[in-house]
Design goal:
It is a single chain. The protein is an alpha/beta fold and 526 residues long. It has 19 helices and 10 strands. 50% of the residues lie in helices and 9% in strands. Strands 3-4-6-5-7-8-9-10 form an 8-stranded mixed beta sheet. A two-stranded antiparallel sheet has the order 1-2. The chain is globular, with a radius of gyration of 29 Å.
Length: 526
């Protein structure tokens, strides 16, 4: 193991000897002439260069003591590894100044805060930027406004450290409790992080490092990854996923991003385009997906993230939001988060007060689209308000052969073609041409809307999540036509009892609610 202290002592020794050699060199020039003293000059250059290199290596070793490969993280993204030139006083100044610029702008708008961060990094030397990336990766890696390559390097280092930590946790758990459900979860998380450190093969066969603008393994994990060359991109899509997305199953989001960036015919990546997956908030599970809290908490983070993105001059930015991500995106848009185009997919609603795109108060010229695939039960419930696919001032797009809630990025399909057209601005989208009535798309969908609303109206708000989780199988059964009326009543009664929610309902309530879901949906003769 290389010792940083030894490297620094060697560097100091060479520097001291170099100063003595300089005196000999000057004396030799006087005695024998400069030409004959040339070998001494070469030795001076070697001593100086070697001392600098030893100092750089010592600094890298110091960073590596915290885990990961700092040298590899910097060199992977073309950042200088010559961080040994940062003196002790410089390090103190950099830490202090970074902390100050963050705290001074904590209450500023996202745009003001990002501008201050950009100004701060713009004044730093290449060595100072590299040093901050490996010295404070947990701060720099998520810092909107910091240069993308600096964030890439910082997050790569964080991934390496987290992977080492969770590999140890996994080994210990397997040794003590191999049947624990946590084993499977940790195995998936370790697999994802291992993949993060491996190159991604592009459509034209190139191997490129994976690029992360955010990585935080805490809890379910938060990730933001860039596919393509963001610095040169003229068309950028930000994907915002919904419920149950986490670090352990992030590969499904990444696969959707790859599909979105891949040209249907050539298989190559779309030119001058980049796609970003933004899993930058604590996504809900089924239980709390009916509550807006996590969308409200995540919206400012999306606003800040968008403010920190830099692409080619004049680049167009598209927002592709899915499921609960549409609710979060709606709130971010209402805060003034700028996008040139927006697509809501499989939306449970954009909030109870949003009845039209006009209510979002978007910038003039913003294009707004929506998709709802047949059988998408999340859209049918309208748990958070009206489905944007039914709003008159939002253009509803065709989804082709997609069905259910999770097939909007299916390759070589009309839905994905539409998304790529919006991303690149090249071509015409295909509009949904069917009937807007829910029952024409999915038998029982209108019934489900009424059923869910009636059930939710009779339990306290903090119990709504439990209700949604318990009734998910019943909802799906109603919509696919496998549940008749007697069965629906029996299942509803049993589910309420099993979930501990039966106390909120009198026996006659069940028949009343089921009956109301039929009559108000216009399906008496089912």
């Amino acid at each position: 193991m290389v010792d940083a202290d030894d490297l620094e002592q060697l560097a100091k020794l060479l520097t001291d000897k170099r100063q003595l050699a300089e005196q000999y060199y000057k004396r030799a020039c006087q005695l024998v002439g400069q030409a004959q003293a040339t070998p001494l000059a070469a030795m001076l250059r070697w001593a100086g260069d070697t001392a600098t290199e030893l100092g750089n290596r010592a600094a890298i070793v110091r960073a590596a003591e915290k885990g990961g490969d700092p040298f590899g993280a910097l060199s992977t993204f073309g950042l200088t590894t010559a961080v040994g030139t940062i003196s002790g006083d410089d390090k103190i100044r950099l830490r202090k100044d970074l902390k100050k610029v963050i705290s001074d702008n904590a209450a500023s708008t996202p745009e003001q805060r990002v501008q201050a961060i950009r100004k701060f990094f713009g004044k730093l030397t290449a060595a100072e930027r590299s040093w901050l990336a490996i010295e404070q990766p947990d701060v720099v890696g998520r810092l909107d406004g910091a240069p993308a390559t600096v964030r890439y390097a910082a997050n790569r280092l964080l991934i390496e450290r987290a992977l080492t930590h969770e590999q140890k946790d996994l080994a210990a758990l397997k040794a003590t409790d191999p049947k624990s459900p946590q084993v499977t979860l940790l195995e998936k998380r370790v697999a994802r992080m291992t993949e993060f450190l491996q190159p991604r093969v592009t459509g034209d066969g190139r191997s490129v490092p994976r690029q992360f603008l955010l990585f935080d393994p805490a809890g379910d994990g938060r990730v933001a990854e860039v596919f393509g060359d963001l610095a040169k991109a003229e068309h950028v899509a930000v994907m915002v996923p919904g419920i149950t997305n986490r670090l352990d199953n992030y590969d499904s989001i990444a696969n959707d991003a790859v599909a979105l960036l891949k040209d249907r015919d050539s298989g190559r990546e779309l030119p001058e385009s980049a796609v970003i997956t933004w899993l930058g908030y604590d996504t809900p599970e089924f239980g709390d997906s009916v509550l807006p809290a996590k969308a409200e908490a995540g919206a400012p983070a999306l606003h800040s993230f968008r403010a920190g993105l830099e692409a080619a001059k004049g680049a167009k930015f598209a927002l592709f939001a899915h499921s609960y991500g549409t609710l979060l995106s709606s709130k971010a848009l209402q805060e003034g988060t700028p996008f040139d185009s927006v697509v809501f997919m499989g939306s449970p609603g954009l909030g109870p007060t949003i009845k039209s795109a006009a209510d979002l108060k978007l910038r003039p010229g913003t294009q707004v689209f929506a998709m709802r695939a047949p059988g998408d039960w999340v859209s049918y419930t309208e748990a958070h308000g009206r489905d944007p696919a039914d709003m008159a001032d939002i253009r509803r797009l065709a989804t082709g052969r997609s069905s259910g809630h999770s097939e909007y990025y299916t390759p070589k399909n009309t839905g994905l073609d539409n998304l790529q057209t919006i991303l690149t601005g090249d071509g015409c989208v295909q509009t949904f041409m069917g009937s807007p009535k829910l029952d024409d798309e999915q038998f029982g969908a209108a019934n489900v809307r009424v059923l869910v609303k009636e059930l939710q109206s009779r339990v306290p708000q903090w119990k709504a999540g439990e209700l949604a989780t318990a009734f998910e199988p019943i909802i799906k059964g109603v919509m696919n036509g496998s549940t008749d009326i007697p069965t629906l009543m029996a299942l509803t009664t049993k589910t309420l009892a099993d979930s501990g929610l039966g106390g909120y309902f009198a026996p006659q309530d069940i028949a009343q609610i089921v009956g109301k879901s039929l009559t108000e949906a216009g399906a008496d003769q089912r």
